[in-house]
Amino acid sequence: MRILLIKMSSMGDVFHTFPALSDAQAALPNLKVDWVVEKAFAEIPAWHPVVDKIYPIELRKWRKSLLSRETRQAIKAFFDEVNQTHYDLVLDAQGLYKSVWVGRRIHGRIAGFDFTSAREPLASLFYQYKSSVPKDQHAIARLRQLFAKSLGYKLADNAPIVYGLQTDDWPRPEVLPWREENYLVFLHGTTWTTKYWPEDHWVELLNMAQQADYKVVLPWGNNEERERALRLSAATKTEQVWVTERMLSLNEMAQVLKNAQGVVSVDTGLSHVAAALEVPMVVLYRVTDPKLVGADGTAVTRLQSPCAPGYIKQFKDLQQEALSLQGLESESVWQALLAKMDKPL
User: Which residues of 142-171 are buried (b: 16+ CB within 10 A; e: fewer)?
Assistant: First the structure.
């Protein structure tokens, strides 16, 4: 059986799909999955052994110039390539108008969420097979149920989350300045200012790691994050903290995470990468709720403040700002990380 999966973005959404693929692979040993994914994330699906072909789509780019000749030619070429393969089923795992737009241009019958389950309900009108999947669940659970119902197998109750990625042969990354030493990764960069963890908290955590004889990697993805990482490193006054010399590619970053003994992360896309790689990790949810889309897995501990359900983009006063750090003290984070790494407390 060969299916075409439409799950284009975002990074977290892509990683949330892997447990469903692992379920399907176990239930259907002859299954092959081809995947339509945004070009920015095209290297990720190949990490799962059930994935065969990957079709990088530039939907975001196309939408900016739909009427141009160049865009029309690119769209035609893309769908001509996809339609060279026969699919037993096209599975729209997004339930959005944009994913329906893609699915309807591919030969084959389409399955997806029903009207009450899709994020954009009218998208369901274009599916031949529709599945009811309650919305009040984590995205990983919803996708696992959608795959099971669409592909006709039973999902065991309380089945553990298995990402199932092919990473055993990943080498220790050459970008690291150390060859053998154990190290941690601290993911400090995120999008909203309110999701940041204060720098003095990071410094305290770095000092705890140093006292426990751990090296620490501080990666960065833009100039602001690089400057923060350099400040944190300077504040510790030790060579045990390493700021990456350049912005790492996603594959390099994944290798760094995979070979780490543990990870501490704020709410950011890379936390989903670490979760899928099943690295012991503590994720800090200061103003966002992990219930539906947070990083999840057997190696993940999630700490959240009383403000987490509020999705706060701007604090209304200093009292609320202070409350948003309750339960996220550096000592609490360190103890949670040691527990997840099965180290003595």
Answer: bbbbbbbbbbeeebeeeeebbbbbebeeee
